[in-house]
Amino acid sequence: MVSITYGHGYLQDFTSDSFLFSGSSTYTTSNDGNVGGTTTIDASLTQGDDYWNGCYIKYLTGDNAGEIREITDFDDASDTLTHDAFTNQTSNGDTFLLSAWKIVEDGQTLSTPSTVEGDYLALEATGSAGNKSSYLVNFTNIGISTTTYTRLLIRFHTSGSVKTKITVEYSDASTDDYISGGSSSTPTTTSVALDAAKILDHIRIYSLDNAGTVYIDCLFAYKAAFTLPNGAYGITGTIPNRNIRLDIPSRQSTITQQLGSGDLEVNIGCDLTNGDWTRTGDNIDGEVFYDILHNAPDEPWQWLDTEREQMKVTLDPVTFTRGASGTMLTDRMNLTFREYRGSSADNSYETYATRWGTDL
User: Fold this and answer.
1) 3 occurs within a structural domain
2) What is the CB neighbour count within 10 angstroms for residue 315?
3) Domain contains 24
4) What is the pLDDT of residue 57?
């Protein structure tokens, strides 16, 4: 069985720490804060008390430019954000961002969420005692219909003795829990069905019970996964070794530079006259692949499952041949999937097994 996801309605890919502030407006301080860099005052903040608690503030200009701190209190009457101390005093006219995510702590303490190796969210939990928890949640509503986007895919692993849970919250305040109490020393992928005919608003990423780190590779809601029928007539995989052989002037032989392996490339041949290659509403066989290519600007990668490999890929290119031999019609399509990465695979978080999903 080979399947490929399509139709991303929501994608959170943790490629840099900027995910915390994705879509944030720029604010400007309207007064100096208290001495010590622990408060920020902005008269444009008109939300109710505690609205920004658990979010993060990042200064863009001034003496604290680039620094990020957790917000511990918001007072509406004075338009004051209280936060962990910045290195310097906060000053009138400095600009800042407020995060699109916030943390909620119940007995655990979470460090500022960060990304590692350009591919993983890291939630580092300390100070837990007994059955305690904390979680990171998107601050603004996602607002997508589960009638269209029916499934959620999660890829995670953990270190230390911590466990994780993923909770989704709908607009009617109902919730669902997935991988509750999950722990795994290697990346684990789970695809789950969302409740039908609801609006998905929030996703909570939990740290549970003990100290350690929860790593999340990706979270995304998508329409479905298309399973290729038995008409797929062959799979060819290529893992290039990027050796370069340099000529040596006035000498025999060459110098070999070992540049490491390239991206895995998977080619799949498809006989569209064999099996069912359409979805409900499709006009032609193999239309799902046209769909994926057309939406590529909004869907930077897909999830490929060949039963041997499971990994992020891009579909590029698609070629097809149509013809006839005597009274026999031929209609074939060749799919090329290439490994997708946000960073180098040469890091302490991956082996070839986790990179290409051969251990999933």
Assistant:
1) no
2) 19
3) no
4) 96
Domain range for residue 280? 229-356
For residue 252, count other CB atoms closer than 10 A to its CB: 5
Classify each residue of 116-134 as buried b or exposed e, where b means 16 or more C-beta atoms within 10 Å of its C-beta. bbebbbbbbbbebeeebbb
Report how far residue 21's alpha carbon sits from residue 342's, in angstroms, rounded to the nearest whole number: 19
CATH of the domain at 178: 2.60.120.260
Instruction: List, in sequence order, every beta strand (DSSP E) within 209-340.
Output: 212-228, 232-238, 241-247, 254-261, 265-271, 302-305, 310-325, 328-339
CB 188, CB 113: distance < 8 Å? no
**Which pLDDT value is given to residue 243?**
87
Residue 53 has φ and ψ, to the nearest 5°, of -60, 135
Decide: 243 and 200 in contact? Cβ < 8 Å. no
Residues 118 and 72 in one domain: no
pLDDT for the residue 209: 86
pLDDT at 30: 96
Q: Give me the average pLDDT of each 10-residue run along the chain (360 residues).
A: 93 85 92 93 95 96 95 96 96 96 90 87 81 89 96 94 95 96 90 97 93 92 93 81 88 87 92 92 95 92 92 92 81 94 80 84
Alpha-carbon distance of 170 to 88, in angstroms, equals 40
Return the pLDDT at 245.
87
Looking at 168, 194, 226, the residue that finishes a domain is 226
Give the Cα separation of 317 and 314 in Å (integer): 9
The Cα–Cα gap between 189 and 166 comes to: 12
**Gap between the Cα atoms of 59 and 69, Å rounded:** 9
217 and 120 in contact (C-beta within 8 Å)? yes
305 and 337, same domain (yes or no)? yes
Residues 276, 293, 189, 213, Cα dihedral to 10°? -170
Phi, psi of 70 (to 5 degrees): -80, 140
